[in-house]
Amino acid sequence: MLISMVVIFALCWFPFNALNMMRDFHLDKPIKHLFSFLFLLAHVISMSATCWNPILYAWMNENFRREFKAALPCCFSKVERVNETTLTRMGSQYRSTVDTGD
Description:
This is G-protein coupled receptors family 1 profile domain-containing protein. The chain crosses the membrane at residues 34-59. It is found in: Membrane. It comes from Plectus sambesii. Its main location: membrane. By secondary structure, the chain is an all-alpha fold. The chain has two domains: 2-61; 72-102. 84% of the residues lie in helices and 0% in strands. The chain has five helices and no strands. α1 (2-24) packs antiparallel against α3 (49-60) and α3 (49-60) crosses α4. The model has no long low-confidence stretch (mean pLDDT 81).
């Protein structure tokens, strides 16, 4: 998980740092007319690095998912009940469509 977090962080911050280095070494002349847009885009991508951490935690760590559900039971218990009920009701319908190929 740590390696994934470091890789995501590096990928998110690379465009911003590359753009700043181009500007520092005066290599930005070919993109001068797009610099403001590219700077904004690179800045948004770099700031999105903080949004990826909880997603990585939730995706890669079963303990985090379990504790998150325990911390917010009101959000997940209803969804799980709806999914279980829906799956139970649809179980026979799904099996019949798979068997017939419809």
